């Protein structure tokens, strides 16, 4: 059973008298058969809760520093028209009671908490986004993460890995950026894709007739589960490329990428392009506390070792707002066993709703 959560805020220029303000609102609460309980705030303004027979719950708080807040919770199936009338009545009455002191009124759309379909996902820099998601079309758990594909009316189907929006069918800008933004010629080249289980990168590069593309994931089960979902529900991204694990100019290897990279290093095998689509740069800026940084360092080092001397390495970074994490990654690029130069590009990926950084690196 889901709950709707409405908020109504009033910023005022001077301190508010709780007694007169609250007494002016009581008639509205009583009309809705809401029972009042006053709570001790130890001198920090006024706080009252109101409980209704139909499950409605209201928190009214008059803060001592010039803010009045109203929070209303109710069940999803509650009468929305009645709720709107209640909030409008409270807003109109507070406008009268606080006349001349109001500097801002803010009423947000209701948050739907505990719904069967989760529509709220955070951006990399911690902002909350509500997507127009209406159904879950695929969900599985691998040994590493939860894999979901959700349908959005605006972005098409969206691949979500462990609560992070990974790629939507609308996100061709991501695929273009992580493959060199249309500036590279892949014809006749050897390409290694790390990750990329959604098939978007592979489908795009096959069009350019490379000599061979090898794609490998972080683990056996990871690749199978992501491919299984995407070839059924992300076909605007991958087309039919995932229907077969091998084609004239590509092969999808169902094995862990780290042992394979080490094997390539030992064999001296090199690639003209290495595209790392395994994971974004960690948000944490404490590498000693986050094992993802160590994994990223390992992948970086091995990838550069299998890169042809004139080859290029492509990877995503993270949100352009995460400057500390991005700077830490760039420091790591400067400490690899093989020296590299790099450049970065900032791209707007539609479903991310934030600017995203991509890196290109090459051997000095």
TrEMBL record:
Domain of life of the organism encoding this protein: Eukaryota
Query: Domain named PABS: which ranges?
Result: 119-363
Supply the alphabetized keyword list: Acetylation, Phosphoprotein, Polyamine biosynthesis, Transferase
UniProt-recorded Gene Ontology molecular function terms: spermine synthase activity
Catalytic activity reads: S-adenosyl 3-(methylsulfanyl)propylamine + spermidine = spermine + S-methyl-5'-thioadenosine + H(+)
The protein's Enzyme Commission number: 2.5.1.22
Output the InterPro entries linked to this UniProt entry.
PABS (IPR030374), PABS_CS (IPR030373), SAM-dependent_MTases_sf (IPR029063), Spermidine_synt_N (IPR035246), Spermidine_synt_N_sf (IPR037163), Spermine_synthase_animal (IPR015576), SpmSyn_N (IPR040900)
Q: Which Pfam families did the record assign?
A: Spermine_synt_N (PF17284), Spermine_synth (PF01564), SpmSyn_N (PF17950)
| GO aspect biological process, one term | spermine biosynthetic process
Pathway, per record: Amine and polyamine biosynthesis; spermine biosynthesis; spermine from spermidine: step 1/1
Instruction: Return the Gene3D superfamilies for the record.
Output: Siroheme synthase, domain 2, Spermidine synthase, tetramerisation domain, Vaccinia Virus protein VP39
Top-level EC class as recorded in UniProt: transferase
Active site per database record: 277
Q: Which family does it belong to?
A: Belongs to the spermidine/spermine synthase family.
Which PANTHER family does the record match to this protein?
A: SPERMINE SYNTHASE
Complex and partners: Homodimer. Dimerization is mediated through the N-terminal domain and seems to be required for activity as deletion of the N-terminal domain causes complete loss of activity.
Name-wise, this protein is Spermine synthase
Give me the gene this protein comes from.
SMS
